[in-house]
Amino acid sequence: MIELLLATVLLFQDKPDDGIANGNFDSVEAEATLDERAADSDADAVCELQFIVGARRADQISVRCSASADAAAEAVIAEQVDWRRRHNLDEFSRERGISVTLELDQEADGGWLVRRKRLFSVPPNYPPREIARAATANCRIRYDVAAGQPDVLDVNCITDGSERAFARAARNAVERWIYTRNYNRRCVLVTLEFGIQDPGDARYGTVYTPEDPPCPEEG
Q1: Residue 209 clears pLDDT 90, i.e. is over it
Q2: The domain spanning residue 160 has which CATH number?
Q3: Residue ranges of the alpha helices (H) in 118-216?
Q4: Are residues 106 and 128 part of one domain?
Q5: Is residue 10 located within the same domain as residue 40?
Q6: How far apart are CA 39 and CA 68, in angstroms?
Q7: 83: containing domain
Q8: Cβ-Cβ contacts under 8 Å for 187 (sequence gap 6 or more)
Q9: Which residues of the chain form beta strands (DSSP E)?
Q10: Given a cut of 70, is residue 219 above it in pLDDT?
Q11: Same domain assignment for residues 108 and 145
């Protein structure tokens, strides 16, 4: 039984092209560490944002900042999470606790600008029928981000299974991602790979790379 489970471990790999690291953290940084990060960074301040994905109340968001920040900086950080956003959540993401570090730049008038970032990403659900077929896939997704919410434009997948099933899974995953509210960008590209891992085999997805979906022309 154990060998069977090992032979059917599902793998997911996120290969972002948006220049943004995955913002998921398991440990809480001490204030001293935030001060150290601020000193090592070219940012004017560093803050740690903690929130519950799909939070029902604003008090489920907390902020701690380096000594170089003030109350106004903390307020700007707290505004980056839309705690009312609860659509399209699944059991993996709902009520999930997230801790992420954000950098801020101070303007000449004393105001603060938060450097945009992806706060949370959820892996796609592997299509059940494709599991049974041991199908793999590479999917290339193009999407817009407006006010921190992604809107998938198109998905191209190369697979030995159902292209439609993998494309739907990739789309549903990306639409659950969370960005800072100040994040606005058109035609972001990311690759999601679906694969089955056998013992001793580190292969993800397929060996082929799908074409980039076109970016719609502005009307």
Answers
A1: no
A2: 3.30.2420.10
A3: 128-132, 163-174
A4: no
A5: no
A6: 9
A7: 31-116
A8: 142, 143, 144, 153, 215, 216
A9: 9-16, 45-52, 61-65, 97-106, 112-114, 118-120, 137-146, 149-159, 178-179, 185-197
A10: no
A11: no
127 and 112 belong to one structural domain: no
Tell me if 166 is assigned to some domain: yes
Structural domain count of the chain = 2
Domain assignment present for residue 26? The answer is no
Residue with tokens 């049974």: 132
Q: In this predicted model, what pLDDT tens digit does every residue of 31-67 receive, in sequence order? A: 568 998 898 999 999 999 998 887 667 777 889 999 9
Tell me the average pLDDT across 11-39: 58
Residue 138 has pLDDT above 80, yes or no: yes
Q: What are the beta bridge partners of residue 152?
A: 143
137 dihedral zone (left: phi>0; alpha: psi -120 to 50; beta):
beta
Closest CA to 170 of 203, 202, 130: 130
What distance in Å separates the CA atoms of residue 136 and residue 201, rounded to the nearest whole number? Answer: 14
